[in-house]
Amino acid sequence: MKPMFKHVVAMIVLTLVAIGPAGADDSRFNRMISQAMADLSTVKGSTDLLCLTNAPYVRSNGRPGIDYLNPIQELTGCSVGNQNLLFFQRAQFYPLSITLFRGSTGEAVVMTMKNDGFAIERLELSQSNLSSKAFWKETEGLACKPDFFTIASIAGSWALGAPYDYLKCAELHNHLCPGVSSGYLIARMILDQYPLKQGERYTMISSPIWCKEDAFQVVLDLTPGKRGMIVKKLTQAQKDRITVKNPAGMLLITDKKTGAGKCVAFSFDFDKMRKLAPKESPKVALVFALVDYLDEPRRFVTVAKEFPVTGKMAQEMITAGSNPYEVAGLTTPQN
Ligand SMILES: [Zn+2]
């Protein structure tokens, strides 16, 4: 019987499909995916269909999640090139999660590995449901609850036409939120306004820290391991002394040889961002509202200060033990 998705806030059917460990009969897994496609009344290759999974990252029951990806691709026709096969990062010990989602209706079948089977949940993840507080309350007992915000924020944004580079930020960060969006917008501003010249490099001083740092890594390839990002936590007392309004990190643009160049201090206006969605709505409503503004970084991001730096000063700013804003002269005097 075809499950009902309509006329209910969430129709939840929990079915455990035993799959078994490595080497077991995979035909049951294939049947589960085919059934999910049938439940969604969709066909292989539909561009209205999204597959969202943590399969490349996790190992369940000793079996790498990536093993499941070929059958998923073959049965759904979803692919990276079609931008309808999206991933999200999880720790390796995390359960395998696979969501098939229809963008036009919001219908979803979420399959979460449990013991040696899958919990299958059929949900109506329409924009209106996801933007309702009552709906979120009903999701409390779901088997997919630990992934629910991830699935809702990414699938919902995909359905609204969010750009692929933004969805790649969601992959690393494993969800979309106003914080990672702020990082995406700052990164877009950097690309537009501060393109690198020959022989220059960026170093992002991530301070204060929030979700934005994960967008810098994806969009600008500024990773801590390659020293493109220096992550510095500030105490509340240190933050209170910063003279930049709404400080959102500082970018060093320096000569690769001399280490000298300039520094750009950014501000991010969260108050302005918050106004895009009703105050009482769930966080994801703001995430969805933001999709329309991702190519307008200047609406929220401002350059608070731009100043020259010597090689010595740049080193002082990124070295452990210093408050980079203090080195830059962007703090009030210490009492
Ligand atoms: Zn976040």
Structural features, described:
The protein has 335 residues and is of the alpha+beta class. It folds into two domains: 15-159, 60s Ribosomal Protein L30, Chain: A (2-Layer Sandwich), CATH 3.30.1330.20; 178-327, 60s Ribosomal Protein L30, Chain: A (2-Layer Sandwich). Helices cover 33% and strands 22% of the residues. It has helices at residues 27-39, 69-76, 127-130, 133-138, 145-159, 164-173, 178-193, 212-220, 236-240, 270-274, 283-290, 311-318, 324-327, and strands at 15-18, 49-53, 59-60, 63-64, 85-87, 97-102, 107-114, 117-124, 200-206, 229-231, 247-255, 261-268, 301-309. It has a six-stranded mixed sheet, with helices on both faces. Strand 7 and strand 8 form a beta hairpin. Helix 6 crosses helix 8 (212-220). The termini are far apart. The model is unreliable at 1-11 (pLDDT under 50).
How is the topology of this model organized?
Elements (H helix, E strand, L loop, with lengths): L14 E4 L8 H13 L9 E5 L5 E2 L2 E2 L4 H8 L8 E3 L9 E6 L4 E8 L2 E8 L2 H4 L2 H6 L6 H15 L4 H10 L4 H16 L6 E7 L5 H9 L8 E3 L4 H5 L6 E9 L5 E8 L1 H5 L8 H8 L10 E9 L1 H8 L5 H4 L8
Helix pairs in contact: 1-2, 6-8, 7-8
The protein binds zinc ion (ZN).
The site of zinc ion has 6 residues, from helix 7.
CATH topology of the largest domain: 60s Ribosomal Protein L30, Chain: A
Ligand types: zinc ion
Our count of domains comes out at 2
Looking at the overall shape, the CATH architecture of the largest domain is 2-Layer Sandwich
Q: Quick check: average pLDDT?
A: 92
Q: Estimate the strand proportion.
A: 15-25%
Secondary structure tally, helices? 13
Task: Determine the N-to-C terminus distance.
Answer: 72 Å
CATH C-level name of the largest domain: Alpha Beta
- Please write the string of helix (H) and strand (E) elements: EHEEEHEEEEHHHHHEHEHEEHHEHH
Number of strands: 13
